Amino acid sequence: MTTAKTRHHHGDLKRALIQAGIDLLEEGGLEALTLRKCAARAGVSHAAPAHHFAGMSGLISAIAEEGFDIFSKYMTDAIEAGEQTDRERLRSICRGYLQFGLSHSGLLKVMFGEHGLGIHAPRKDNREEAEAYLILRGVCAPFVPEGEDPHIVEAQVWSLIHGFTLLYIGGEFGCTSMPIEDSPFEAVMALIDRIGTQAKT
Amino acid sequence: MTTAKTRHHHGDLKRALIQAGIDLLEEGGLEALTLRKCAARAGVSHAAPAHHFAGMSGLISAIAEEGFDIFSKYMTDAIEAGEQTDRERLRSICRGYLQFGLSHSGLLKVMFGEHGLGIHAPRKDNREEAEAYLILRGVCAPFVPEGEDPHIVEAQVWSLIHGFTLLYIGGEFGCTSMPIEDSPFEAVMALIDRIGTQAKT
DNA sequence: AGATTAACTTTACGGTGTCAAATTTGATCG
DNA sequence: CGATCAAATTTGACACCGTAAAGTTAATCT
């Protein structure tokens, strides 16, 4: 009765396991994420997680869901900083996307990975779309030509920044550090700037 | 003496193991790729691969390298089909990229994954760049403003099609099948068409 | 208080990568 | 030709993994 949920032994094991998983992920990358290690970190036996998640894939899904929350925060923080034009917000959300990827690369890979339930899966709050995608949609909206399908602009922005982030994280552009004013990122931003302008030639 | 390498027992185990790995990958996805299963498919004991690869990560690297060869083939096939303008070639290489991803999603994930040595790693033929990247570079070249860094256009094209392919494979656009004339892909192509035009406003 | 049930532990099993020590095999040399 | 030698492969062992079944504890309910 100390919290909402009646806690028999541990207190809020489900949460603890998810957090342990995220920590493991950040410390040792994808390969360090293990059911047994999560359990050990939470101070329970290795079989305890089975009562809260549908196996390893269930835990991964829960971690991914948590990851999308953090992800959303990165993006909202980026677009809510100061007064920004629509175009600046488009740039900012990309910056937030990349920054999340750089700070939580393991988490990002899990989120879009095998059992990571991508951005469209129904969530705990049973909303249709994930919050992260609604944020993206909102920022893209001003660039959708009237009468056109919003998905077009969303697919353009999303593909571009998603691909860049993954390639950047993977070291494909040479640098893995944070200096975002690099040329490859600016190149992508330049292309972002062409979204929504003169639709037909 | 039947081949270049003196074969003691098996005959070309290294190759057989790589092929087994690729097969496993296509049949059962990432989770099905296992050292022991590769060995079993090649008809050798579970410890045999250790003498040809530096553990699991070494095998993955070798599979990835093979994957990049197949990848290159997809792209060259796409851009060499019929007479094409520079712009059509740019579209075609993207189509080849996506088609490879759709046909070999597991392989693609391995290639750009943890031990997958991305597209820039030095290869067996000790060329500086992977063939795949050289192909991309060649197709991008006509759209690089003179005096500008070619990497800019390459990063734009690559990020866009890489991101789209991964999202598409992941089912984030709803469909996982082959109909490429879908709206999301056409949206990305439309953005591709804006690359290299009017560099400054 | 007694029964019930949820939370967790214990134990066990098959599969995994990796390592060290045999063992086989093909080639080489005297 | 036969002994030798080194490479290729096997065998066996280990620690770790996910999962499942059965057992234990503790809180709740009547």
Helices and strands, with pairings:
2 copies of one chain form a homodimer.
Chain A: H1 13-28, H2 35-42, H3 55-80, H4 86-103, H5 105-111, H6 131-140, H7 150-169, H8 183-192
Chain A binds a DNA duplex (30 and 30 nucleotides) through residues 6-10, 13, 34-36, 44-48, 50-52, 55-56.
Characterization of this structure:
Two copies of one chain form a homodimer. The first copy, chain A, is mainly alpha-helical. Chain A folds into two domains: 1-52, Arc Repressor Mutant, subunit A (Orthogonal Bundle), CATH 1.10.10; 65-192, Orthogonal Bundle (Tetracycline Repressor, domain 2), CATH 1.10.357. In chain A, 57% of the residues lie in helices and 0% in strands. The longest helix of chain A is centred in the middle third of the chain and has 26 residues, at 55-80. The first copy, chain A, starts with 12 loop residues before the first helix and ends in a 9-residue tail after the last helix. Chain A binds chain B through residues 29-31, 112, 114, 118-120, 149, 151-153, 155-156, 158-167, 170-174, 183-184, 187-188, 190-191, 194-195, and chain B through 29-31, 112, 114, 118-120, 149, 151-153, 155-156, 158-167, 170-174, 183-184, 187-188, 190-191, 194-195. The structure holds a DNA duplex (30 and 30 nucleotides).
Classify the secondary structure makeup of chain A into a structural class.
Answer: mainly alpha
Instruction: Give the termini distance of chain A in whole angstroms.
Output: 65 Å
Helix content of chain A: 55-70%
Under CATH, the topology of the largest domain in chain A can be stated as Tetracycline Repressor, domain 2
Mean pLDDT over the residues of chain A? 88
Q: Unreliable runs of chain A, pLDDT <50, ≥5 residues?
A: 1-6
